[in-house]
UniProtKB/TrEMBL annotation:
This is Glutamate racemase. Signal peptide: none annotated. InterPro entries: Asp/Glu/hydantoin_racemase, Asp/Glu_race, Asp/Glu_racemase_AS_1, Glu_race. It is an enzyme of class 5 (isomerase). The gene is murI. It comes from Rubellimicrobium rubrum.
Length: 270
């Protein structure tokens, strides 16, 4: 009955924490590819190979459903995986879907033509690879018209968070918000398009100002997953226990994960 959650590093723990609170009876297997993080500076083929290898490991752990709690993997690899790689009895889902559902106020299954929505100017903060993919803009355009998206590649933020240097991470966030403001002075909403960024959501909100609505992914993904499993209960896999897997150094990753979630997390070698 396990569900898998994958991220290139520790950022996906924000999603895992929200899912664990929303679905406390579902075992969660987490895979952090810490040895190869960050993904945001890699090319699409490299991201695809790393993501499929991690997903296959989660399948072996008894997960029939895997959430790519990594915007870069969702942007650069998910569609290719779904079209040519995912076995027919498995599912791999990304984190864009719940975010765009919230932003456009329409369900993913709503295939009616794109329409105007209340939000007109959106600031997207994401990794360089996610920005380059334009996946967010593409998915948004299927559902909404008249929305201006200005993307800001937030180089260095993931690295700083992974290293536990939150002072540097805050300085970088404020610098990237300033850069975005020079291109889009008055956004209506901001999308934190990386699962590491909820760890800095208060900094983003403070830098953007109270008039900007900030969309963060963790709780949106958790609620969307709960709804998906209600509709597709057969996708809960046969795995019986929660686990934390990493390609990095387990003790080091465990210590940083414990700092992030403020509860003891023990990783094992993948």
């Amino acid at each position: 009955m396990a569900v898998g959650i994958f991220d290139s590093g520790l950022g996906g723990l924000t999603v895992l924490d929200a899912v664990a609170k929303r679905l406390p009876d579902v075992p969660l297997a987490y895979f952090g590819d810490n040895a190869h993080a960050p993904y945001g500076v890699r090319d699409a083929d490299d991201i695809f190979q790393l993501t499929t290898a991690a997903t296959e490991r989660l399948f072996r752990a008894g997960c029939d459903l895997v959430i790519l709690a990594c915007n870069t993997a969702s942007a650069a690899a998910l569609r290719r995986m779904q079209e040519s790689w995912v076995p027919s009895d498995k599912r791999v889902l990304g984190v864009f879907v719940p975010l765009i559902e919230a932003l456009t106020e329409r369900q993913w299954g709503d295939n009616s033509p794109p329409r105007e929505v209340s939000v007109k100017h959106v600031a997207l903060f994401a990794t360089p690879a996610t920005v380059a993919s334009r996946a967010f803009q593409r998915e948004l355009a299927f559902r909404a018209i008249g929305v201006d998206v200005e993307a800001q590649a937030c180089g260095g933020v993931v690295d700083a968070i992974e290293e536990g240097d939150m002072i540097l991470a805050e300085a970088l966030v404020r610098s990237h918000v300033d850069a975005l403001r020079r291109k889009m002075p008055s956004p209506d909403a901001a999308v934190l398009g990386c699962t590491h960024y909820p760890l800095m959501d208060k900094v983003f909100q403070d830098a953007l100002g109270p008039e900007v609505k900030v969309f963060s992914q963790a709780n949106l993904v958790a609620e969307s997953l709960a709804d998906y499993l209600r509709r597709h209960p057969a996708m809960i896999g046969p795995g019986q226990e929660s686990m934390f897997l990493t390609t990095g150094k387990p003790r080091q990753v465990s210590d940083r994960a414990t700092q992030f979630l403020r509860r003891r997390i023990e990783f094992q070698a993948a």
